[in-house]
Amino acid sequence: MVSTTINPPDTTPVLRERPRPPPPVVVEAEQQWIFSEEELLRTPSIVDGMSPEEERQTRRKGVNFILQVGMMLKLPQTTLSTAAIFFNRFVMRNSLKARPGYKPLHQYQIAATALFLATKVEENCRKMKELVIACVRVALKDPNKLVDEQTKDFWKWRDTILYSEDVILETLCFDLSVEPPFQSLFHMLKYFRVEHDKRLRNAAWAFLSDSLLTPLCLLFTSRTIAAASLYAAARCCDVQLPDENGKPWWEIQYVSLRDIRRACNLMADLFEHSAAKDGEASIYVGLRSPEDEIQFDTPGSLTTSQAPPNSNGNDPEEVLSEEGELDG
């Protein structure tokens, strides 16, 4: 009989690698796409006579189109986030309002092409036929619509996407490097060892999902949006994140508390009165806070000894690959 020796489990503590600041090249590239709130009121569409509210609704319709098509194609949130960023950046440089001698692309056309680009950038490619069929069904609000190479709608959408691809690439100056905020959030949850706290994780994910329907990606970096979602979730769930060496957690992530609070306040303005799911209070209720006031006694900014234990939850490695698992 051959005996088998079972080694004792390794109890050596796992050392965490401190987050690194974003590379200067990445920061410089992202900053050209960050605007002020005043600049968002002077977009090409608004200059051409579209009201700010109408422009916001048009953006929202375009991104919602991306989300619906993405769900039909079972694309991960990272890909949908990248597509939404491409869409919003395009609208900052092109008008959506027709004028003599100028016929703009429809928001659905821009959205479909932005999603097509995002699937290639994030390496979640789908066949052109699948993308076109999904776009037609969402545009016509008929999920069972028969679409194939024998229908006019198929070729119209296919040609539109292929033509618009060059237009969007030129508008974006072929700058397709995007750090999806969902990925940044995932790394933050892992770093603070709260990725298995399902309630906290879902609240943060809900904030990010809602942010896709807003121009938040034009006001803040992806890392700031991810940190704001974690901050909002921590306040909603009364969770306390650990400090390190006297530094609050947001400084460890190289994010400004003022920017975090600005992002949270803007989201509260938009979603505070939205209906919450599962009978719980909305994550945005009571989220507002003074941007320049530092308080170290509020949830999301406390000491290591006060950090909560992990609770059972889904495997976080699956979060970035399963569409819609953590919505709300």
TrEMBL record:
Q: Which keywords label this protein? A: Cyclin
**A molecular-function term among this protein's GO annotations:** cyclin-dependent protein serine/threonine kinase regulator activity
> Domain Cyclin-like, which positions?
64-170, 183-269
Q: Does the keyword Metal-binding apply?
A: no
What superkingdom does the record give? Eukaryota
Disordered, as annotated region: 1-23, 293-328
- What biological-process GO terms show up in the record? regulation of transcription by RNA polymerase II
Q: Where is the composition biased (Acidic residues)?
A: 315-328
Keyword field contains Transferase: no
The cross-references to Pfam families, in alphabetical order and at most eight, read: Cyclin_N
Polar residues compositional bias, start-end: 298-314
Homology family: Belongs to the cyclin family. Cyclin C subfamily.
Q: What is this protein called?
A: RNA polymerase II holoenzyme cyclin-like subunit
